[in-house]
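Bug #77: duplicate submission created two jobs. Keeping one. Sequence:
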Amino acid sequence: MQLVTIGVDPDLHGAISIFDHHRALVSVVDTPITEEGKIEPADISSLLRDWIRNNQVKIFLEHGNPGRHNGAKSIAVTNEIYGVWRGLATAYGIELVSVLPYAWKGRFGLNTDQINVQQDKITTRLKKTKREQVNDIHMQVLVGTTYQQSKEAARLKAIELFPNWLKQLEHKGNHGRAEAILIGWYGVRKYDKRIG
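Kept job's structure:
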């Protein structure tokens, strides 16, 4: 059995990332939802069944307190998705680790008190990697920290760490994919002593 790490950003605009036993990012998919904009537990279950075949799986699932930017509906949907993942992990006997946003964001310098300092460094490094592709992405240094700026900082950090996944992260709306990747990578780094 080989360890597969799954990172989950649990909201309707969230995503799921998969890291194989070599610690390589092998997949990132948007949260499966219906045409009516509701979570599709059967699709998540199907994806999970495919990933757990002959593998030991560990899921890192973001679980945080809703912020002032979240409305009641958004909070309810996020809690529903969180519950679906907890239920599926229990049903399949998979270890699930709840990750507070402050923990994984802090690991990558993305907490509100860290973003302004890190943003210049991220943008500078991005311009050095895959210059011709990255120049097509709107690069702006964030001033102040808002909810959307935090999402953009996560997207830029994911591109910095995984430049080969630029195509899947090139639009600002891909922040859910970026956060799922970073949550998964946080899990890989936290529990794999070879990379610290």
